[in-house]
Amino acid sequence: MRLQHSKKAQTLIVMLLLTSLCITAMGYAVYRIATDTLAQEVQSAYHVSLQRTQDRVQNYFKQIDQSVLQFEKLPALESLIMPGAEENNLEILTLLETMLRMQTSIDDVDNIALYRISNKRLYSTNHQVTAFQEDYGAAIAKFEQTDKNYSFFNLTVKQAPTTVYIRKLPIFQGSKALYIIIHLNQQFFDHILGSSNEAKGNYFILDEDHQLLQNRGIMDTSRLMADVVPEILQERPASDKLFTAYLPPSYNGWIFGFAIPSEELFTKINGIRNVTFILAAILLALAVLVTILSTNRLWRGWKDIVSLLDEPAADTGTIHSAKKAAHRDNEFHHIYDKMQRIKETRDELKEQVKELTPEIREAFIRNMLQKGLRSQEDLDKCERYQIELLSGGYSCYCVEIDQYKSMSGIYSEIDLYYFRYGLSLVIQEVMDGKGKGVITRHGEGRFLALISLEDTAGSLDASKAAIHEAATTIRDFIEQYFPFTVSIGISLMRKDYAYISLSSQEAEDALKHKLVTGTNEIIPIEEFRRESDGAASALPISFRELENDVIYAIRSLDPELAYRYIDRLGELQGLRTISYQWLQSQLTEMVFSIYRTVGSTLRKPSAEPLMSDLMQLATLEEWIAWLKSQVVDLLSSELQQEHRKHMLKVSQQLTAYIHEHNEEDLRLEVCCKSLNVPTSIGKQALKEVQDTTFSDFLLQSRIEKAQSWLIHSEMSIEEMSSRLQYSNAQNFSRTFKKVIGLPPGQYRKDAREQLRT
């Protein structure tokens, strides 16, 4: 008996324990979801950052190679390349001056040296160096062992870090007579990777031998080599203690990477996790303590515990009642309050999880009701958004609040919001009681809903009755408990979910008969179908479904698919249960419906066919051929022309913008944003109309402007290259010659001579 009387106290303790465990599990689940999502976003962000770093390095060495190519063309250098040629001091001085200009034009270069292999002499731009052979001897020796045309070394010479880039000269000849040595200072890596003091993690570069070339950050080289490099080389799985992002080998086999301790990356979220776990631990400890105390209390005096939970007896005195109330407050009130707060916290966590995808789910439901489910991708999305569709058949409701516009003058916007919200809950609950359903708003005071039923052994009439019963329940409940009534349109029942859009349209069409039937009514569309003698029920095809299929194929610009749908009309050949007049009426109605639906998406809808032309079609073969040529081909052609006009307009706007702003550092995304055009549409327009890419068109635009400047102005090549966003005049001249076939100076001379003649 004591155990029975203590049931409320035991239930309270068990709820407290379970709630604590739920908070722990919920906190851990939210923590895992948040960390995984954050890790993916951070991975993507650092990949972009590393890609930019890689591009900067490649561009830097391209600049060096371009300067070396220009340097190789000097006559003084050509004499040194000749074997056995004597050195001319004047030529050596010319080379040193050119090398000095190269040094000043390239960032982070301390010295440029030229090493002649035949006599092992080295010429340098840094006149403070007294023993060049000793300074670069180790780098030259290491380079000769690699048997490569160029290499990058990070050495220690005389206890000082030395970074050199060595390339054999001449570049495009088999025999190499010279080495050019470019000595970079350590600021080169600071500019590329950042300084160690600024970085929270570590940016690093691995060379082609998978050795650590440079490292900037808080972790030392030994830790990177022990924990990060093996992970990159796939010698062991990734560590949970470190977050790593890296790019595959690129320039010269280098790997650009970033690593940061996970506790530093997830500092804030770990703090939230720890607070959640500490709170759960405190609650769990409190639950255990309450369990011990309550158990002790139960064994000491079960009557006192029972008196706290039972209602006071009628003959109990005031003092005894006050004592029991005090006991109740002392023993249970605080515990109940804490349990209530825990429950509220749990509910808040659940709501936060539910709010992750509601807007996307709502948009998908609207799209599903408007277009149907025609691909596996659509079905996968249904599963992702937890939309369950049963296999026994489905139908659509269109629920409309009667006299909704007049209600806006009586009730406030807040009241109308709660009315709509309550109506949606009623519809959802009733549909879930019969099967499975989804609902979405469809204008002011109107809802579209989809209800699907289980596949049972019952007849089709039983399923229709269940759908009508659910609609009746919705209408009666609203009429009884809400200050308004609703009218409900019901579509035909189907099983193929590709025709959801057709069912939702039928539900809307049913409501159009509200003027005839009146308000607060259930209006099935099948009551208004005009099919004589039930001929449609015996047909192998449905004209409404066929119309929906053809519209889908035309909008998809797939005439072949539309042809296959229209060929299904051939299944009617030989049926004696239908009359030609009825069939002609159905086909005519389908033609006009297709024209109106597809024409609504065109700026200038095409003229509908003449009824006299349709009346001349006497056979099913003629109808099929006419539908293909005058409906599918014509509408598809107009849609394609509309598409081409749109692409042409976008292309004209985009090319005009490029021509006007080609002196700026343009990007396709920036151009499209300025024109309020999606980037994908701008890219597609350039490809379809101009048959080119954005970068190629921008290059051509800049070359055309350069041609105009060369002919009609005295602007220097250097100024042109700067205004057209080239790093130097050499790059501009080389690009100009590649496109036009002549260097800029020669082009200016030839063009002006032609103008004089």
From TrEMBL:
Domain of life: Bacteria
Ranges where the HTH araC/xylS-type domain occurs: 652-750
A GO MF label: DNA-binding transcription factor activity
InterPro entries xref list: GGDEF_dom, Homeodomain-like_sf, HTH_AraC, HTH_AraC-typ_CS
GGDEF domain segment(s): 392-527
S-adenosyl-L-methionine found in the keyword field: no
Keyword Transmembrane helix found: yes
Assigned keywords, A-Z: DNA-binding, Membrane, Transcription, Transcription regulation, Transmembrane, Transmembrane helix
Transmembrane segments: 12-31, 275-293
Protein name per the record: Helix-turn-helix domain-containing protein
